[in-house]
Specification:
The chain is built from one helix and 37 strands. By secondary structure, the chain is mostly beta strands. The chain folds into three domains: 30 residues; 359 residues, Neuraminidase (6 Propeller); 93 residues, Macroglobulin (MG2) domain (Immunoglobulin-like, Sandwich). Strand 3 and strand 4 form a beta hairpin. The longest helix is centred in the first third of the chain and has 27 residues.
Amino acid sequence: MKNTFIFLFAVLTLLILNSSLFIDNCKGQWQSDVRLTNAPDTSLSHNNNTRIIASNGSILHMVWWDKRDGNREIYYKRSTNGGVNWEQDMRLTNDPAMSIYPSVSVSGSNVHIVWVDTRVSQEIFYKYSSDDGITWGPDKRLTIHTTGMAASPAITVSGLLLHVFWYDNRDGNWEIYYKRSTDGGVNWGTDTRLTNNTAFSLFPSCEVSGFEVRVIWCDNRDGYYQVYYKISLDGGINWDVDTKLTNTISTSYFIPVLSVSGLFVHFVWSDNRDGNNEIYYKRSTDGGVTWIVDTRLTFDPNISTYPSIVVSGSNVHIVWSDNRDVFPDIFYKFSTDGGLNWSPDTNLTNFPTNSLRPAISISNSVLHVVWSDDRNGNLEIYYKRNPTGNVGIQNINSEIPIEYKLFQNYPNPFNPTSNIRYAIPKSGFVKLIVFDALGRQLETLVNESQKAGTYEVSFDGTKYPSGVYFYRIIAKDYVKTQRMVLVK
């Protein structure tokens, strides 16, 4: 009996140790904080829900504003090796007026940014780079006001189609406005007013997938600020009616952020329905036609605000600012099943200072987080990476193939997951999509620049019925489609 007890105690101890090691290893995936700015004055990431970091494969692009030169200007910084090293700061605006609140989006080597600028009145300005941020074109004014002003622009890009949203009070109250370019930013269409009510409509967040353009925002037309949603199915020409996504007798105000993967539409926000601000999440699995109930993601008596979300297939990643440890820290959590289940909260910063307003991005398997932090006496931009935080696309052979190839998925037939392997002999942009027998695109499994090599990615058919599906690769001049069968 004594020996049995000793054996069981040893097994229990081993399990506890292994669990501790597992937890430590998970925490260890996040690397050390890196200070990206070193200016004598405030460097701010963002004040709303726009994207300030974007990636084209291993090339990262980050924008912010600071007043190191006596007035607020837009600055830019990039990394060409997935965030391991960063180049010098580049000042993108040079005017005695105030330039603030930038947003960035990337398509291939084309980098596009918008911001608020007061050189004339408070207007939206735009500029772009066609060589991954090495050189930049001139500033272009997108809005022209005789009365009122524009605020909080957000940009999203799909190829040559550019979409910009902002809120604007030219009509006496704040409304959501929209503008698009169909030629990569050379020419721009007219301003389109998307909301039309006597309330305030604020803080748009946007995403594009092909010709599907989506925007969410805050709106107090019903007395309390709630989250509203709108979609265009033809690249921004026509827009559907407003859809109210939250319905509380509280403020769903701080501040909605949208991310999309195939038919899965996800967004997060901060909401005080429970007496203090908590992070909430909502998703649609049918492209925004129907929505699940609100999901509360944080459970702490302190304030949780300014969430940011990014999605890659069924992987959903969220960061936010949280003062549960007295000082605001950056926290993180994730889901690997499209938002059904969530990991515990992870504290990414742990300093007795203010860590604020994070943004998150993905490139290949790497997660990137940036935020503003005053640990050095004034607010600076800090960065943190997790090199294996978004495992999904695996480079299984770095030897250079002799030709492009899309292999047959395996297993096939499958239930519910199958692996898709492909080879690319030259570095370049790769897109791998899954669509059904009617030609409707369901998933974008790969959409990034990759080095030459052989890769493998998994397709999860859990949410789809039995049937025939197709997957297609587009890489430079190579296009090929294969057939696969899901059997449940």
